[in-house]
Specification:
The longest helix is centred in the middle third of the chain and has 23 residues. It is built from 19 helices and 21 strands. It folds into two domains: about 450 residues, Amidase signature (AS) enzymes (Alpha-Beta Complex), CATH 3.90.1300; about 120 residues, Immunoglobulin-like. Helix 4 packs antiparallel against helix 5, helix 9 runs antiparallel to helix 17 and helix 12 packs across helix 14. It is an alpha+beta fold.
Length: about 650
């Protein structure tokens, strides 16, 4: 008689999409080479030397990689190969995140040149030889820049954006350009040239935006760090939805020159990273005055404090943080709870955390949004400065229908604005100045070092739905700096984020607060849809058998789990007696999840039915379900089970755990 449960792996089979990318993967590793068996001079055969394995870059930080480069454990060429392999495996195959618009065909050559510099004794700094990704609204002299628009599909700038030039000078390797919400005008990251980017934490959902491609790419370890832009949440929302750190800096610290604009009144560039240290490195190498962006005159000629020098574990000691009640209104309950708990954790680091309110906040922030008033004219100005652009205005894009259908109403609304110097625009700018002054006065009167709130109060929406944009406006429309930090996860496994906002040019202090917060407990975890590669390829789906119950009156199921798509396929059969007798013995076979939060009167954790596999008068059934959130976490923890119910009471005849063999 067979035991109650067996877990027997079958022969691994690669999913079809992974096979389709095999040739691309082989290209990614072409510089590594393959060892050959050759006769020696004496006529004997030497044993083949295995090709070196790809360097493991999953969740590796900029500092990790720089240490490995310094120690000679890896080269920049190998890093490029490793990241390109992950892009091949997970961006257009497997979960098909669709975060990247294009990769840089010269990345390996650039990496080789930087390796040669290092070998000759020159290291430019902490970004030397580090691959990065850029949102595709940054001008690059060697890569097309589309801002996600089909109308700019052939737009090749002649010069780099100021920030890009600084990154290249620091030794960064532009690995590729990421998808974004078209023209940066939205927060779900869909574009007419790039399509829809998916969230690596739940590929049925959006990644936020407009820098959603960068957020998804960094979360999935397509690069250790990436750059986005923020007009109203476009760095902070993708950071929140990808469990990353992202700073919207004080306007004027970073040049906007060479970035396709949405609103010069509110636009600012900035990095997204998995660690605060990496964020600080990225901020340090890109800050500075630029004569082509008058807003940066506030820092021109000044010695700027280094973010990297401010990283102290005791930075929160004595700080006073105000939980801002207006930005907790309308927030999903579990998000509010998670964010509050994250904020309260700063007390253990010596901070004072208090509740604060502003009774007239709704009136204060009303009519402070400049985006639609700026978009038409700022876009025209950009197109005039670059003679290479194939279109000359937003009106031309609309007339030719060169936009995703989701952008139609927004584009047309922006195109109706007749003057950039209208009384309405002047009123908005004046109200923004008043908002900034009032918020500074509010923090002064309450003796606050920062105010805290959820970066966004809702979950990432399912693909195709409209994403609410709560809480993005205060920092964007006041011009005050804010940093989004991972706060933990919802019960269904989606990232949440705590945001801190400070006074003008308190950016360094905010980053130091974030560093201290990060050291107190890592709230980020990697997405399960993009695990480490196995010999340069995505892990294959695993198949195993599970049996529950006796030889008569039980059930056997073959399961196949695909970690890349979180799909669990099953074929279940009733075992034992034939025909009507068998059907009467087994009434149902179900999948159940242990609910550790719900405990029965006997003190045992309860189980929740998540899927009926087989019902009354059925002898076999097949199906596929996508495990997300709590169910996915339960699968990996061994807390899913297959239960067989018969005709002998309410309890299952047999129940066994479901988990793929290691």
């Amino acid at each position: 008689m067979l035991p109650a449960m067996t877990n027997t792996p079958s022969v691994p089979q690669f999913c079809r999409r992974a096979l389709a990318t095999a040739s691309l993967l082989s290209i990614c590793f072409s510089t590594v080479g393959t060892a050959q068996t050759r006769p020696s001079a004496a006529g004997t055969t030497k044993r083949a030397v295995p090709a070196p394995r790809p360097y493991e870059v999953t969740e590796a930080s900029v500092t990790d990689l720089q240490q490995a480069l310094t120690a000679g454990r890896v080269t920049s060429v190998q890093l490029v190969n490793s990241y390109l392999a992950r892009i091949a495996a997970y961006d257009q195959a497997g979960p098909s995140l669709n975060a990247m618009l294009r990769t840089n065909p010269r990345a390996r050559a650039e990496a080789a040149a930087l390796d040669a510099e290092r070998k000759a004794g020159t290291v430019r700094g902490p970004m030397h030889g580090i691959p990065i990704v850029l949102k595709d609204n940054y001008d690059t002299k060697d890569l097309i820049t589309t801002a996600g628009s089909l109308a700019l599909a052939s737009h090749q700038p002649k010069t780099d954006a100021f920030v890009v030039a600084k990154l290249r000078a620091a030794g960064a390797i532009i690995l590729g350009k990421t998808n974004l919400h078209e023209l940066a005008s939205g927060i779900t990251s869909i574009s007419s040239i790039g399509g829809q980017t998916l969230n690596p934490y739940d590929i049925t959902r959006c990644p936020g935006g407009s820098s959603g491609g960068t957020g998804a790419a960094v979360a999935a370890s397509f690069a250790p760090i990436g750059w986005g832009t923020d007009t109203c949440g476009s760095i902070r929302i993708p950071a929140a939805f990808a469990s990353l750190f992202g700073l919207r800096p004080t306007q004027g610290l970073y040049s906007r020159d060479g970035i396709v604009p949405l609103s010069f009144t509110q636009d600012t560039p900035g990095p997204l990273a998995r660690t605060v240290t990496d964020l600080a490195i990225g901020l340090d190498v890109t800050a500075g005055g630029d004569p082509n962006d008058p807003q940066t005159l506030v820092v021109s000629g000044k010695t700027l404090p280094k973010f990297s020098d401010s990283l102290r574990t005791g930075a929160l000691r004595g700080a006073r943080i105000g939980l801002f009640r207006p930005y907790f209104r309308g927030v999903d309950g579990d998000i509010a709870d998670t964010v509050r708990a994250a904020a309260q954790s700063m007390r253990a680091l010596g901070a004072e955390v208090v509740e604060v309110n502003m009774a007239d906040f709704d009136d204060l922030i009303a009519d402070t949004r400049a985006i639609l008033m700026d978009m038409r004219f700022d876009f025209i100005d950009y197109l005039k400065r670059t003679n290479e652009a194939p279109v000359r205005s937003l009106s031309e894009i609309i007339a030719k229908g060169l936009f995703d259908k989701q952008l139609e109403a927004r584009h047309k609304s922006a195109d109706t604005v007749q003057s950039r110097d209208s009384e309405g625009h002047k009123r908005v700018v004046a109200r923004q100045a008043n908002l900034r002054a009032r918020m500074i006065a509010f923090m002064d009167s309450a003796k606050l070092d920062a105010i805290a709130y959820p970066s966004i109060g809702q979950r990432p929406v399912l693909v195709g739905q409209v994403q609410p944009a709560s809480n993005c406006a205060l920092s964007a429309q006041s011009g005050l700096p804010s940093i989004s930090m991972p706060a933990g996860f919802t019960p269904d496994g989606l990232p949440t984020a705590l945001e801190l906002m400070g006074r003008p040019f308190s950016d360094v202090r905010l980053v130091s607060f974030a560093f201290a917060y990060e050291q107190n407990g890592r709230r980020r975890r990697a997405p399960v849809s993009t695990p480490p590669l196995v010999n340069g390829k995505a892990p294959a789906p695993v198949t195993f058998m599970v049996r529950a119950g006796p030889a008569t009156g039980g059930a056997t199921s073959q399961f196949t789990f695909n970690a890349l798509t979180s799909e669990l396929r099953y074929t279940v059969r009733v075992t034992g007696t034939q025909g009507a007798a068998m059907q009467s013995v087994v009434q149902a076979v179900v999948l159940r999840r242990v609910d550790e939060a719900a405990v029965s009167t006997s003190g045992v954790a309860q189980r929740r039915v998540i899927n009926r596999m087989l019902g009354p008068q059925m002898t076999a059934s097949s199906g596929t379900l996508r495990l997300v959130g709590t169910e996915l976490a339960a699968y990996h923890a061994g807390l899913l089970s297959m239960a067989v119910f018969g005709n002998a009471g309410a309890d299952p005849v047999a129940e066994v755990s479901i988990r793929a063999p290691k």
